[in-house]
Recover the amino acids of this structure.
């Protein structure tokens, strides 16, 4: 039997943007028994819910994707919530997994954990070289604490915990709520709304100078499933495309794909966030053979097509 056919897999956050893709890929990989409870069934901030969930599912492997996430605006508005809920979900779940002797724990972290001025491309060895960018530091530090916990538990209890750090994700089915969305869905919605209103300009946050790296959600799901199967090391692993683009170029690319001819106005009073983000992805290639396959323009085209179809269907 293959690796996944022998597993009882619990996916937290399985109903989310990334989680749905992971659950689908696990099913295609032949996962023997698969559980993906929703928050209404198991609120992982509550210890009693964590215990009840693990007792009911009895997993051999946990993929912990559940998180409270958002863009710069959401991080600035809810730093306490982002710190507390992300920390408590992970810390309690890892502890109870240890207590119940679960064979493998896969925690999904974030590149927001990296220091604000990390040399580019980000290497896993630089993770502790400084403080994260201020607007998302509470979220990034909460997630990084889980890496410390997994490494400590490996040392003391022999727990097989791995820590995977995806870059910014995007794709069909993303969160397009302007209050909580990340940059790509926020920009796509902004351009679409401008087209619908007949506007000849859009206003974007910051200066456009910062850079980011983006990973198509299907590629991310493939990476997590590969990592969960093949990776057994204590060190964190970057998950990304290894391709850097400025926010200004990203906006211009989205406008070009959506055939929006209007002006782009930059609101420099709004924060830019971290100056640069781009990952070194050699460890993922070496440890479990992952390389991103979907180019940014192709991924944007698929995402835009999905969003336009979704908006039209709601009219």
């Amino acid at each position: 039997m293959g690796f996944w056919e022998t597993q009882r897999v619990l996916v937290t956050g399985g109903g989310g943007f990334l989680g749905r893709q992971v659950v689908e890929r696990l099913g295609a990989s032949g996962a023997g028994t698969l559980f993906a409870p929703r928050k209404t069934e198991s609120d992982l901030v509550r210890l009693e819910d964590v215990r009840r969930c693990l007792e009911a599912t009895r997993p051999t492997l946990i993929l912990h994707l559940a998180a409270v996430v958002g863009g710069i605006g959401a991080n600035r508005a809810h730093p306490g919530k982002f710190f507390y809920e992300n920390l408590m979900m992970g810390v309690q779940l890892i502890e109870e997994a240890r207590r119940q002797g679960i064979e493998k724990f896969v925690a999904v972290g974030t590149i927001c954990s990296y220091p604000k001025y990390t040399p580019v491309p980000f290497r896993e060895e630089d993770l502790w070289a400084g403080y994260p960018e201020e607007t998302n530091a509470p979220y990034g530090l909460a997630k990084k604490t889980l890496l410390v916990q997994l490494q400590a538990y490996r040392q003391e209890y022999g727990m097989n915990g791995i820590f995977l750090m995806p870059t910014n994700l995007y794709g069909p089915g993303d969160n397009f709520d302007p209050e909580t969305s990340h940059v790509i869905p926020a920009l796509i919605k902004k351009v679409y709304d401008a087209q619908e209103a007949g506007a000849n300009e859009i206003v974007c946050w910051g200066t456009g100078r910062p850079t980011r790296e983006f990973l198509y959600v299907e590629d991310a799901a493939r990476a997590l499933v590969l990592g969960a199967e093949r990776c057994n090391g204590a060190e964190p692993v970057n998950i990304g495309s290894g391709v850097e683009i400025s926010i200004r170029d990203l906006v211009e690319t989205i406008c070009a794909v959506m055939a929006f001819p209007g002006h782009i106005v930059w609101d420099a009073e709004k924060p830019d966030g971290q100056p640069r983000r781009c990952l070194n992805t050699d460890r993922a290639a070496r440890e479990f053979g992952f390389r991103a396959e979907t180019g940014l323009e192709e991924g944007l085209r698929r995402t835009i097509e999905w969003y336009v179809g979704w908006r039209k269907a709601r009219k």
Summary: The longest strand covers residues 160-166.
